[in-house]
Amino acid sequence: MTYLKLFSAYLGVGTLVGVISGLFGIGGGILMVPLIVFVWHREMQTAIGTSLAVMVPASLAGVLRHHYSFANVDFKLAAALAVGAMLGTALIGAPLAERLPGDTLKQLFGVVMVISGLKMAGLFEWVPTLFH
């Protein structure tokens, strides 16, 4: 595959993921990780790290657009969640991802996707009551 075709494929997938991410607020991991694994045949750990790297600028662009155009960003909530997310990622998530076999990561990722999908479809309505 020529460099231009490969770049066009990357750009197209990135744009599609950006549209969906900006529209629904879902991180690129749900979309980007499977694409990197199955389309570009990368290892699961590489797909995870690459997806995280892609989402930093994409998330920043989305936050700025949502804030300046729609004023719908709760920065206090975001700051508190970000501290926890950074600690969890750096101290637990990333090291664990490096230690687990790729097939185990794929299976766990699939379980998370199914549970998330069922929750979004209206199942597990009792879950939010745990946090109130």
Structure report:
- The protein is an all-alpha fold and about 130 residues long.
- It has one domain (about 15-110).
- About 80% of the residues lie in helices and about 0% in strands.
- It contains five helices and no strands.
- The longest helix is centred in the middle third of the chain and has 27 residues, at about 45-70.
- It is globular.
- The model has no long low-confidence stretch (mean pLDDT about 90).
SSE order and pairing:
Blueprint: H1 3-24, H2 28-38, H3 44-70, H4 75-99, H5 102-120
What keyword list fits this structure?
132 residues, mainly alpha
Q: Note the overall shape.
A: globular
Q: N-to-C terminal Cα separation, in Å?
A: 53 Å
Q: Domain count, please report it.
A: 1
Proportion in β-strands: under 5%
> Radius of gyration in whole Å, from Cα?
16 Å
Oligomer: single chain
Helix segment tally: 5
